[in-house]
Design brief:
This protein has three helices and no strands. By secondary structure, the chain is mainly α.
Length: 74
Amino acid sequence: MNDIESLNIEGMSFEEAYEKLNEIVNKMENSEVSLDESIQYYETGILLKNHCEKKLKNAEVKIKKVISNKIEPI
């Protein structure tokens, strides 16, 4: 549980956050945690989900910028 408490979510890449989120989901689905741990995992999961959504939104904005600035052929 201590590894969850010490996470630096803002410093994570999308892939790191997504992997950690999947680990949490698997632990909760397999009932490997107590009720108190489940609550803490849930809170951390929400933070990870929000972080992933933010990363995806930023990527979408960048892609839209690239598309809108079509490069003319040479």
